[in-house]
Design a protein that fits this description.
CATH architecture of one domain: 2-Layer Sandwich
Largest sheet: 6 strands, mixed
Distance between the termini: 62 Å
Helix content: 25-40%
CATH class of one domain: Alpha Beta
Order of helices and strands: HEEEHEEEEEHHEEEHEHHEEHHH
Number of strands: 14
Number of helices: 10
Length: 313
C-alpha cells in the first residue's frame, strides 16, 4: 500500500466519519479482484462501538473529486455514512427483509466493482445473501451482481458507498422474482443490474411499484423479523432510505405508516425506531407461512409430465 495515498484517504474518511457520528476502529490493507490495493476501514458508532461495518475503498480513491456522472462525490459519501450510522443502531445492521417476506442478510461483498473476466462488457461485484430463519446450516446464495457499462454511467463511482444500496435492492428484487435460489451450497448466481432499475426522466432508482398495503405489510414483516426474531425485540430503524428506494416511496411515508401501526397496537415507536408488540408477535405463523411461500418460489420447478416421459415430441 502506498503510505501517502493511504494516509490521505484515512484522514479524509476519518473527518467524514466523525461528521456522521462514526469512528474508525481499524484500517487494513486489502486487494480487489484484480489484486490492486484497497483500504479496508472498520467503522462503528462513536457513542456505542458494539456494532461495526466494513467499508472497502480503492486505495487511490479520492471522494473530494467529481464522479464519472458529473456529481460531486463528497455529499454522497457523507450521506452514506450518516445512513450507516442510523443502521448501526439496529440489532442486526446487516439484515433486511424482502417484499415477498424473506429475512436475509448481506455479507462478504468484495468491493469495488471489477471488469468481467469472461469477455462481457460489465462490471461485477461478488457477495453473499443468507436466509436468516435460524436454519443450520443456513440457506444462502453466492451473488455475482453485474452492472452494465450503460448503467455504470449513472453511478458516480464503482465503489461501495455509491453502489451498495442499489446492489442490495437489486438482490432483494431478484429474490422477489424467484430468480435466486437459496441453497446449502452452490455456485455464484447472477444478479443483473441494468437501466430498467433507473428512471432517467425522474433521475432516481426504481425497483418495486408498491402501494400502501404492500408497504404496511413490509414494515410489519421488517419489524417482526429484524426486531422480534433477530433482535430480541430491540428497536429497528424504520425510515431507512435504502428501504424507501426499494419500495419506491420516501422515508417520511415509512414514518407515517409506522405511526399508524403504533396507533393500531402493532408496534411501539420512539423517534425513527420501532419494536413489535405482542399483537404483532402473535402473527408469527403468518410471517413464517409467507416466508415459506417466498422460499418455495425460489426453487426450480420441474414439469412432472416430462419427468415421466410424457411429451408431445
Amino acid at each position: 500500500m502506498t503510505t501517502n495515498v493511504a494516509t490521505s484517504l484515512a484522514e479524509a474518511l476519518g473527518t467524514a466519519a466523525s461528521h456522521a457520528g462514526l469512528q474508525i476502529l481499524s484500517i487494513e490493507a486489502g486487494t480487489d479482484f484484480h489484486q490492486k490495493p484497497t483500504s479496508r476501514f472498520r467503522l462503528a458508532l462513536a457513542a456505542n462501538p458494539q456494532h461495526s461495518l466494513l467499508l472497502e475503498l480503492s486505495e487511490a480513491f479520492d471522494f473530494h473529486q467529481i464522479g464519472s456522472n458529473g456529481d460531486a462525490l463528497l455529499p454522497a459519501m457523507t450521506e452514506h455514512l450518516r445512513e450507516a450510522a442510523s443502521r448501526l443502531r439496529n440489532p442486526r445492521p446487516d439484515a433486511y427483509v424482502t417484499v415477498a417476506g424473506l429475512p436475509i442478510s448481506m455479507s462478504n461483498f468484495a468491493w469495488p466493482f471489477h471488469r468481467s473476466t469472461s469477455g462481457a462488457d460489465t462490471y461485477i461485484v461478488h457477495g453473499l445473501t443468507t436466509l436468516e430463519d435460524g436454519s443450520v446450516p443456513p440457506l444462502h446464495a453466492k451473488i455475482s451482481a453485474s452492472m452494465t457499462v450503460t448503467f455504470a454511467e449513472i453511478v458516480a463511482a464503482p465503489e461501495q458507498p455509491y453502489a451498495e444500496t442499489f446492489i442490495y435492492n437489486a438482490i432483494r428484487k431478484t429474490l422477489d422474482y424467484g430468480q435466486l435460489e437459496l441453497v446449502k451450497s452452490g455456485n455464484r448466481q447472477p444478479v443483473p443490474v441494468t437501466t430498467r432499475y433507473y428512471s432517467r426522466w425522474q433521475n432516481k432508482f426504481f425497483f418495486t411499484d408498491t402501494d400502501d398495503a404492500t408497504r404496511t405489510e413490509f414494515l410489519k414483516s421488517k419489524i417482526y423479523w429484524l426486531s422480534g426474531v433477530l433482535g430480541a425485540s430491540q428497536p429497528v430503524w424504520i425510515a431507512d432510505p435504502r428501504d424507501a428506494q426499494y419500495l419506491n416511496t420516501t422515508p417520511e411515508e415509512l414514518r407515517a405508516m409506522t405511526a399508524a401501526l403504533e396507533r393500531e397496537g402493532y408496534v411501539t415507536l420512539a423517534a425513527d425506531y420501532a419494536a413489535p408488540t405482542a399483537r404483532l408477535l402473535d402473527l408469527a405463523d403468518d410471517f413464517h407461512a409467507k416466508m415459506d411461500a417466498a422460499l418455495l418460489a425460489t426453487k426450480p420447478a420441474f414439469n412432472e409430465e416430462m419427468r415421466h416421459g410424457h411429451t408431445n415430441m
